[in-house]
Design brief:
By secondary structure, the protein is mainly alpha-helical. The protein is about 75% helix and about 0% strand. A two-stranded antiparallel ribbon has the order 1-2. A hairpin with a 5-residue loop joins strand 1 and strand 2. The longest helix is centred in the first third of the chain and has 119 residues. The termini are far apart.
Length: about 850
């Protein structure tokens, strides 16, 4: 084998030779490869002597889990086993030791030789790559030179093309001008020919029409129209278009009666021929109007009037019966129209297959436009309670008509544009539902009339005008209280009716009607309270003075009036519960109407867009936008669990006003006796009385409260007994207090003190005797108020102290009032009416 040092020397020699003699590079490369092959053969021969089964490969060292020790052991073990076999199976110690050393040396040699082979191979590959670089550079230079030559050739071709284009442009322009002249000459020739023919045609058009041949008339008019279009504005034919229009109108008058006859007799062949005549003269509209009037409108209108007469003849004078008959008339007629459109589509497809997709929608639009006024009048007379079955009839009818027209448009070989057919179908469906939509827009008005009628029947309490005892008043109070849940049920039924009649489209109108109904209910209860007030003789606590010969309600009405306080407590709870249920209904309506209100592409392409809801929403966009905003507002409030905004704010305010009216009634009932006794006391002559002059020295006595004041005080002291006896029976037969009597006693006591104080402040003059009497009255009444309430008003106490102070000591008293927390204004006012000068 060749030693590594020798191989390295040969490699350096080869590399030096390559650098020195580039011209002989190929021969040197061949010699180097030959010497490499010889050395490789020598190494393989030397390594294979006696150890052919233990070759070493570079692949042994490429594994990721390569283990040096394991690899050496495996190679050594195999070589020792082969050596023992060659010696006849002797694996003694000496033999084994000799075999291991030899195996290790041989493995080392093989590994060394493998490494040298790899180094030599890498060196040879590197040398070959370096040798190929000059050749590659030369090839690149050759390609670049070829590209430059090609670029020059292309540029020369472009220059020559530009020169050719400039030369040919002039020739092409001359040819174009020649072609334009030829075209104008041909046009002039055709115009002259048409003009000659048009002149002859106009001269003989009268004779054509005199012949009575409809087809000849149509062909002559068509030729005249084409001739006028070609000739243009020529003075000779200035009135040509007017003549054509006049003859077309004349032809239409001739064709229309024949077409009507053909349509009535269902002569398809004649109808098609006449259709072609109208189409040739551009009178497609005449075909549509004639077909609609003859085949649909006249026949269906006759059926409507027949049914209307039959129902009118069988109707009774009962208003409810008339309403039911109108509902039945509309339901049965819509069913008849639904059956008629299917049979009409079948005949029209057989007669006018290309025009059926437009003729049928136009005919149905004409029919319902003619019937709109009559159907609207019928619907306008119905109460809202009967509109639900009418809506169901219209919904079914619209769905059937829409499906039939859509299927017709998809199946028929129509020549009309898709947009025209789609527009005709929409117009037909809108005309179909227009009577109901017109009534639907007035739903709030109809619903309010229904609510008022039902509330008038519920709040009917004539006995309120003739009460005589507290039991009578209590009975009326319970009757009034019983109207509240009935009224709430009536308003809840209105919401359900709105969903049935309008599918929620008129939700806002319904809510406005409910608010107006709440106002009407409050007005009805106010009339009952007015009758009770007059029958019980209540005194208005806000009145400045009493009417002549007025009398206060006796104690027998106290318990009965307190029964009305149950209504005071029930009203806010009933309104809150009603609003909660109403909010839930509104959210249901929002969920159902949301697709229609959004009007997305998916909804517009679906059959729901042709439903009564979709048509109603589309017909009144502004109303729909307002409804959408309202529904979103309610949904946002519900999501935030906010109760700040009321759904029926106006109605809630009216119900709150009812609560205040009831409270005022009870307040006046409890305060009436006090008002009767104390009002006008400021004008009593007692305040200006002077001591009686006598020749004798008579004893003086302390002043006592006046009778009017003591009457008022004794009434106030009797209130707890009256109120504590006001009980109501529960469901299990037990009794419980009807009201919070302590709060009302304290409230009446404070109101009585304010009433007396107002009278005292109106006194104009006080003598010493009058001041003593007023002090006695105020002290008595203050004690009464203190016994019933927490404390008498400070102003009342101040007046009592001021009028009770002797006039001789009043100046000193006035100077010390600041330390006693007495209002200086009261001190000055008392001094003024007593005539006491203050320093």
């Amino acid at each position: 084998p060749v030693r590594p040092a020798q191989r390295s020397t040969h490699a350096r020699t080869d590399h030096t030779q390559t650098r020195e003699d580039a011209g002989d590079a190929d021969d040197a490369d061949a010699d180097a490869r030959e010497r490499g092959r010889e050395r490789a053969m020598d190494r393989r021969a030397s390594a294979s002597v006696g150890w052919s089964s233990s070759g070493v490969s570079a692949r042994d060292f490429t594994a990721d889990d390569f283990d040096v020790k394991r690899w050496i052991n495996e190679r050594t073990r195999g070589m020792v086993r082969d050596d023992a076999g060659a010696r006849g199976g002797d694996l003694g110690v000496g033999a084994s030791g000799w075999g291991v050393e030899r195996a290790l040396a041989d493995v080392e040699l093989k590994v060394q030789l493998l490494g040298e082979d790899l180094s030599m191979s890498l060196e040879e590959r590197s040398r070959e790559g370096v040798q190929r670089v000059p050749k590659a550079l030369e090839e690149i230079s050759s390609v670049e030179r070829a590209v430059d030559r090609l670029y020059e050739e292309v540029r020369g071709i472009v220059v020559r093309l530009d020169d050719v284009e400039a030369e040919s442009r002039t020739s092409v322009e001359a040819l174009r001008q020649l072609d334009a002249a030829k075209t104008r000459m041909e046009s002039a020739k055709e115009t002259l020919q048409e003009a000659n023919g048009l002149a002859d045609l106009m001269a003989g058009i009268d004779s054509v029409f005199a012949s009575g041949n409809i087809r000849s008339m149509s062909e002559a008019l068509s030729r005249m129209k084409r001739g006028l279009a070609v000739v243009g504005e020529v003075p000779e034919f200035a009135d040509g278009q007017d003549k054509v229009d006049a003859f077309e109108h004349k032809l239409e008058g001739i064709v229309r009666p024949a077409l009507v006859t053909a349509l009535e007799s269902q002569n398809s062949t004649a109808a098609r021929e006449l259709r072609d005549v109208l189409r040739a003269t551009g009178r497609d509209g005449a075909l549509e109007s004639t077909y609609a009037e003859t085949r649909v409108t006249t026949r269906m209108l006759k059926e409507w009037k027949t049914r209307e007469r039959d129902i009118a003849a069988s109707a009774s004078d009962n208003g409810a019966s008339k309403h039911q008959n109108n509902v039945r008339l509309i339901e049965e007629f819509l069913k008849y129209c639904s059956d008629a459109i299917r049979s009409e589509i079948t005949w029209c497809l057989a007669t006018f297959p290309e025009d059926a997709a437009v003729l049928i929608p136009v005919s149905w639009c004409s029919l319902h436009a003619t019937l709109e006024s009559a159907m609207t009048d019928k619907l306008s007379t119905l109460p809202s309670t009967l509109l639900a079955p009418v809506r169901r009839a219209f919904e079914t009818y619209v769905d059937e008509v829409g499906s039939a027209l859509t299927k017709l448009a998809n199946d028929s070989p129509s020549k009309a544009k898709a947009d025209v057919v789609k527009g005709a179908i929409y117009d037909a469906l809108m005309a179909t539902v227009e009577p109901f939509i017109a009534v639907e827009q007035r739903y709030g008005e109809f619903e309010l009339n229904t609510l008022r009628t039902e509330l008038d029947a519920v709040v009917n309490i004539p006995e309120a005008r003739s009460i005589a005892t507290s039991d009578d008043l209590g009975s009326v109070a319970h009757n009034v209280l019983a109207t509240l849940p009935k009224a709430i049920d009536i308003m809840s039924a209105a919401v359900n009716r709105c969903m049935e009649v309008t599918s929620g489209v008129e939700t806002m109108s319904c809510i406005h009607a409910i608010e107006s109904a709440m106002e009407h209910y409050v007005d009805l209860i106010a009339l009952v309270l007015r009758d009770l007030r007059e029958a019980a003789g209540l005194i208005d606590s806000n009145a400045a003075s009493l009417k002549p010969n007025v009398t206060a309600a006796g104690e027998e009405f106290i318990r009965g009036s307190m029964s009305l306080l149950e209504l005071l407590e029930a009203v806010p709870l009933a309104v809150l519960d009603f609003e909660s249920k109403l909010r839930g209904k509104v959210l249901e309506i929002r969920k159902a109407l949301r697709p229609a209100l959004d009007g997305g592409a998916e909804f517009r392409e679906s059959s729901k867009a042709r439903s009564l809801i979709g048509l109603s929403v589309t017909a009144h966009a502004s109303r729909s936008r307002k409804l959408c905003v309202f529904l979103d507002k309610v949904a946002d409030a519900a999501a935030k669990h906010s109760l700040d905004s009321s759904i029926v704010p106006v109605g809630a305010e009216h119900m709150n006003a009812l609560a205040r009216s009831v409270e005022k009634f009870v307040y006046d009932a409890l305060l009436g006796r006090v008002s009767l006794e104390l009002k006008g006391i400021a004008k009593s002559e007692m305040w200006t009385a002077k001591p009686v002059e006598s020749a004798y020295k008579l004893p003086t006595f302390s002043a006592y409260p006046q009778e009017r004041v003591t009457n008022a005080g004794e009434y106030l002291l009797s209130l707890p007994q009256h109120l504590d006896n006001a009980h109501e029976e529960t469901a299990d037969g037990e009794s419980k207090p009807a009201v919070a009597s302590e709060a009302w006693i304290a409230r009446i006591a404070e109101a009585s003190a304010d009433l007396l104080l107002k009278e005292v402040q109106s006194i104009r003059s006080l003598t010493e005797q009058g001041a003593a009497q007023l002090a006695a009255d105020l002290e008595y009444f203050s004690n009464i108020v203190a016994a019933l309430a927490l404390a008498p008003p400070d102003a009342l106490v101040a007046w009592r102290v001021c009028v009770g102070t002797p006039s001789g000591d009043y100046g000193t008293f006035a100077r010390g009032t600041k330390s006693k927390s007495i209002d200086a204004r009261v001190v000055n006012a008392v001094a003024a009416i007593r005539g006491i000068p203050l320093a």
